[in-house]
Amino acid sequence: MEKIKVKDSVGTILIHDMTQIIPGVSKGPRFRKGHIVRDEDISVLLSMGKEHIYVWDQTPGLIHENEAAERLAQAVAGSGLVLDEPKEGKVNLTAAHDGLLYSSVDGILALNTLEQVILSTLHNHYPVKKGDIVGGTRVVPLMIDEAVIKEAEGIAKTFKEPILEVRPLKHAKVGIVTTGSEVYHGRIQDKFGPVLRAKVENWGSEVIAHTLANDDVSLIQSSIREQLNQGAEMVLVSGGMSVDPDDVTPTAIKEMGAELITYGAPVLPGAMFLLAYIGKIPIMGLPGCVMYSKTTAFDLIAPRLMTGERLTRLDIVKLGSGGLCLNCPVCIYPRCSFGK
């Protein structure tokens, strides 16, 4: 690139977008990269406070910020993402559909350790809607050594999974078993079922069966098996998750041959959460807080299972950092620290 006086710039080609700010009226690019300066542009450039401008002077080995940002975005983008057009040296990555953002913390760190390279994203496992901006790339200088971008592209290829991708939530057939003798015998109304049904449907899945069971291990187990036989791809068992002697839900799940992943999660609310698998089918034991708290461990874990991810105990343990809900008077999840 070449720096020249504005008054001598007629006929030259701008190397970057130039922003004009008119207080209270507008802010945005007045001249775009590639614009050929004309006589009538001189007064406008001077009014923008430009005494000198940078114009195109192709130097071997250097590439423009727009090209660099676009190549970075292409290098990190996996499925479920759309790349916006480069604008003022920046490229936004937006969600192509609803789902969860999966981002590689190690990959983001590796790229950002390169000098003059920037990748900024939402948190890993952030729930997004179609059209949401989930990340952005840019470089610091107007022109950057292409070797840096090639190094960034090489780093991205070293990771098994894309550094960024949006995974859709799959449509799942869900069974619900509400436990508790007080509900089973009709002494109180079931409050769990409607809450769980609303969450399941909001995630794009359906409840295919909802049964009640008293505090009896064999009845809870037969209810779960019945729903599996009906084609349930996920079973939610609510209630009976504490350590009281008559809270037998964990025992029922463990003793029916399920692979126990965890009984307990470092998340508040939701500490008594249970996750197990029968084959490939997740079985979740849900504590009472899921019934009355807006967001709990269940909301952090269930959507990941609905993308098809199989979670380990380590995955659950990692939720401890950011696992404290602040119980705000008005819940703004996911635009808060919970689960981040």
Automatic annotation (TrEMBL):
Q: What family does this chain come from, according to its entry?
A: Belongs to the MoeA family.
Q: Which reaction does it catalyse?
A: adenylyl-molybdopterin + molybdate = Mo-molybdopterin + AMP + H(+)
Name the InterPro entries on file. MoaB/Mog-like_dom_sf, MoaB/Mog_dom, MoeA-like
What cellular component GO annotations does this protein have? cytosol
What name has this protein been given in UniProt? Molybdopterin molybdenumtransferase
Q: What does this protein do?
A: Catalyzes the insertion of molybdate into adenylated molybdopterin with the concomitant release of AMP.
Q: What is the lineage of its organism?
A: Bacteria, Bacillati, Bacillota, Clostridia, Eubacteriales
Source species of the chain: Desulfosporosinus meridiei (strain ATCC BAA-275 / DSM 13257 / KCTC 12902 / NCIMB 13706 / S10)
Answer whether the UniProt record assigns the keyword Cell inner membrane to this protein.
no
Instruction: State the needed cofactors, names only.
Output: Mg(2+)
Biological or metabolic pathway of the protein: Cofactor biosynthesis; molybdopterin biosynthesis
Q: What class of enzyme is it?
A: transferase
Q: Which domain of life is it from?
A: Bacteria
